[in-house]
Design goal:
Layout lengths: L14 H24 L22 E5 L5 E3 L2 E2 L2 H14 L5 E5 L5 H13 L5 E3 L14
Parallel strand pairs: 1-4, 4-5
Antiparallel strand pairs: 1-2, 2-3
Length: about 140
């Protein structure tokens, strides 16, 4: 007795969904790497044994003051006037705007006071200072 030959359909490999997934992963990692390097400058912030990490820190406008007294809005170098104007414009869009001020441990306090005055003129009354808390301390620190 002769057995009929069953024609087996050839297995196919769908490339379109795999290409879509690779593209989506590529876009995700490009965006994630950009966001992780965009926010802060390398600053040696002061040590505080009783510093506390606020929960809303990532939602704040970041202002950096480096060792030489340079002023930065995030990573962009600005003058005190430009900072005041930028914060005032951002505050019009978000009346609850808060600021995270990071000053180098060796920067002059005079510069910090000028920046605080500029923020007050722009209407900011809620800001926090970036400090480092040693790991042996009881409170959490701010990176």
């Amino acid at each position: 007795m002769k057995m009929p030959d069953l024609e087996m359909e050839e297995a196919k490999f769908a490339m379109a969904p795999m290409i879509d997934m690779v593209f989506l992963l590529l876009v995700f990692f490009m965006c994630a790497s950009h966001l992780s390097t965009q926010r802060t400058l390398p600053i040696d912030i002061p040590t505080a044994s009783k510093g506390v990490v606020p929960k809303e820190r990532p939602d704040r406008w970041i202002v950096n003051i480096d060792k030489a007294g340079g002023l930065f809005s995030g990573n962009v170098a600005v003058t005190t006037e430009e900072l005041r104007n930028a914060i005032a414009a951002a505050r019009k869009q978000d009346p609850n705007l808060k600021v995270y001020l990071r000053a180098d441990a060796e920067s002059r306090h005079e510069k910090v006071k000028k920046v605080m005055a500029a923020m007050a003129e722009a209407g900011i009354d809620d800001f926090i200072f970036g400090v480092y808390t040693p790991s042996g301390a009881s409170a959490g620190g701010m990176p």
